[in-house]
Amino acid sequence: MKNILNAPFVEEMRKTTANMYRLGWDERNGGNISCLLDEEEVYQYLDKNEVIRSIPMGFDAASLVGKVFIVTGTGKYFKNVDEDPETNLGIVRIGEDGKTAELLWGFSDGGKFTSEFPAHLMSHMARLSVDPENRVVLHCHPTYTLAMNYVHELDEKKFTHTLWEMCTECIVVFPDGVGVLPWMLCGTNTIGEATAEKMKEFRLVVWGMHGIYGAGKTMDETFGLIETVEKAAQIYMLTAHLPRINTIKDEEMVELAEYFGVKYRKDFLNL
Ligand code: 2HA
Ligand code: ZN
Questions:
Q1: Rg (CA), the chain
Q2: 256 Cα to the center of ligand 2, angstroms
Q3: Is any atom of ligand 1 closer than 6 Å to the C-beta of 184?
Q4: Average pLDDT for runs of 10 along the chain of length 271
Q5: d(CA 238, CA 241)
């Protein structure tokens, strides 16, 4: 067996959580990450027959039975993942009943997966149904995106359009736009179901006055989506109170989308 602490997927979680913490997107226990792993790769590091404990999930993830995820722990701080991955992270396999998570590694202080595990797994299921290569779901509280929630209408079309206007590359990076949910109670199956419904259409979902969810094929892609939204939101917040003299026009966004060959939400433009 290889040493799990050297596994690229553990390393990636350590680096990503540290990065996000430094960017100020994950104060205290804010934020959570889950990543679908390649089973063959995982079993080079862990014995598939050694289940440390079984943890009830409280929802049905039938289409994910046997799938293995690395995930951040509930109440754990992104700040601490790098120095102690075995306490702050866990590797779980979805059990035969679809309703239990079998712990294969981590959560060494008796902990368990993030309180947002329903939203994560339901989002994985939704994304996989439209993109079989989806692997990563990432949630955080990026500062400017959150600030923008208080001063901008929480309307999908308007929110996406404003972000697209703020940086030239936005429409190319997230041509599918940003889904928006109103404020909802977090940590519940209800917000999980609402997020998953949006995830069939969007790789990015804003949780009104809470934060954002991103999904993608790789950690880089997913992180990059949120990073680009956050950059656009920052430009918006730096300029929203000033007279707007210039803007990227809808015709120019069409030019960009066509030049880069992306399929974009035409109905989010005002043409
Ligand atoms: O678990 O971010 O949404 C910390 C959170 C909850
Ligand atoms: Zn949160």
A1: 19
A2: 33
A3: no
A4: 98 98 98 98 98 97 98 98 98 98 98 97 98 98 98 98 98 98 98 98 98 98 98 98 98 98 98 94
A5: 8
